[in-house]
Design brief:
The complex is a heterodimer. Chain A is of the alpha/beta class. Chain A is built from 9 helices and 17 strands. In chain A, helix 5 runs parallel beside helix 8. Chain A starts with a helix and ends with a helix. The chains are: A alpha/beta, B alpha/beta. Chains A and B meet through helix 3, strand 5 and strand 6 of A and helix 7 and helix 9 of B.
Chain lengths: 340, 446
Amino acid sequence: MPFVQEILSCRSISVVGLGKNTGKTECLNYILNRLPADGFTVAVSSAGIDGEVTDQVTGTSKPEIFLREGTLFATSEKHYRERRVVSELLDISYRKTSLGRVVTARVIAGGKSQLSGHPTTEALKFWIERATGLFKADLAIIDGALSRVSIASPAITEGLVLATGAAISASMDTLVFKTSYMVSLINLEKTTIPMINEDNLPSSGTWLLCSNGELKQVSGGGAFSSGSIHPDEFADGIALFVSGALTDRLLSQVRISCLKFGIELIVRDFTKIFVSHPNFISFIKSGGIIRVINRSKLIALCANKVTPEGYVLDSHKLCEKLSIAVNLPVYDIRRIRYEA
Amino acid sequence: MKLRSILDLPCGMRAVFSNLQLCSSLSSHLLLEREMYVSSGKIASHYNLISNLLTDLSYNRASLLTEKVRGLLFGLRDIRNTLSAVSAGRVPDDIELFEIKSLAMISQSIRPLLKEISKSLPELPDLESVVKLLDPDDIRIPSFYIYDSYSSELASIRKRIKSLNEFNEDLYAESSIIEDKIREQLAKEIRIHIENLSLSLHHLADTDILLAKAALFVRWNLTIPELSDDRIYYEGMFNPEVSEILERQGLSYQPVSVTIDSKNPAVLMGANMGGKSVTLRTLALSQFMFQFGFGVPAKRATIVPVHEIFHLSGDYQDVNKGLSSFAAEMRMADKLLKHSTQSSSILALLDEPARTTNPYEGKALVESLITILKERQILTIVATHYNVDAPGCVKMRVRGFEDGRMNYELIIAKDGEVPREAINIAKSLGIDDIWLEKASELLNRK
């Protein structure tokens, strides 16, 4: 497998899609199939409903998740009862989801199951700890749901595999454009400015990092109230730390009033950026710098040439175009399946 | 009366409940559904149990064992529904079998520990046969699936499944059929032990509750009161919630002593901010705590168990029902009077009844209420600012301001004495001088 070595170097990875039907599940199956079988335990779970036979939203057929012997998996009570795999039940969570509690089990004899999962990212994080700690899994893989990118946060999983595909747009140029924007966010560099107390940064608000390393809260710097940022406050700052979401409004504010001070904008990680592409570009073009505290490790980019409606793009051309745009190897899971 | 129904009364039972450190949510469910004890016999035997438990827990080794038990109790789940479904004939699925197995294993681990800690803790039934049934390979970990050792046929099919590279629907279906038969057989055997499983579940929750109560006894310095038929007496009574708040501010709670006699209603007079309301609330709280088996916050106490506790806290204005505060209060008092015709086993704690009406009628209403309650021999304490003059009642007052500090001690008031401290207290609050001087002038003229 092309990127198996990179995956093996992580303790946890997430497979996230740029949108629905981008081939996440196929991508996950592909990875599960190619990880070493002996003496290597994988734990899989999901951030929502996944692995259904038919898609819950669009009604198109979807591949099931195949779980082989020894794999740990977590799913909801409902889906555990519907599983078609011989498995040993290890643990039941105390928190309830809409599909019941979350059940963790170990596969005794290979089979299929739907994966559905943890209601919150916190619960997911806890599960990863437990799976890799108590149950001694070597690698935890989280299947993203819909276009939930938040689980790809380096605070949750160490690495990520991004799935993109024709379902995003049947126009190859638009697809490449949207994908490369996401990749540029994922690849944002880690800040070089030393932060005091890096593990214990404030959990909300916008903060000015002063030259002496101190953090000063910026009044009116919230994601939704950022209309009132006052340029005077920035005289002493070297960077602006946005603890929560970076929104279009906040970014425009920073561009207009703070760029002249040469201030660097720091966010926690790429999942906190909710900025439209044009706005992001105009910020960068005006000389703005965005850095992250935790940089994500993009392991691979997988492309799916088929749309749910059956429209098929030219796989070779798609991979090539994407590869040039993001400067990374791009894989079509369906194609390399035969080559691997 | 269930504990759940009194949780949000103004006396503050919720604080007691939330300070209980229960390990399992099952225990808190069961505790909230508990009925209040009313018979002296039941109360006495419960406190006897707690008293013995407290002695046993004071030994050194006990705390270590207790922590072990509590650690195990965290795994206790509410599987009452599963147990009743299985006993009614339903075949449990793997999730339910897992839960039954973990209950049996927890019970077996805790069983010897409880014996060692105290005889006052419940004796758990032996569930070894359930553990053996659901752990045929004797691995002793609480995971579960339909093990190969249940059936050689199943084992061989699974071997074939494992040997294939592709998922085989037919083989899987075959194995599922055998699994279902095994589950049916397991259900039959579990059904024999279902009563013991259910008993164990309840006993484990009881253990959790008893240990939590014992811990609260120690933490809050609670007392086991003596029982009486006609007289309630507290020495050094304190409000645990308020005193914890004060302690956090570096202050301390001044305990009070108070007596309520069924023959002589108590009238509590005295200054505003003198702690009258807190005293009444604490009396209500203590009575509930006593009758739910928590012990009472006092140095010493003698208490009469009652069937009903009426605490008129004074905050009854109910806009939703369109009642003014006066109407709401009158309705409550009316209910008290109606109930008192049927039973005298009532504790009436009335915080400034009729305070929202004119003093002339208010005084008459309060006096007559006290007189009727006295005739019916209801345990009554009334806090009021009116100078009531009901025959046979014991008047007490808060000692009041001394050297610029409030002394909350309750003392017997001399007859005819009207406490006049409102102006002094207002002064200590820094209220407008011109106003207060004018008021003093008016008083002197009278």
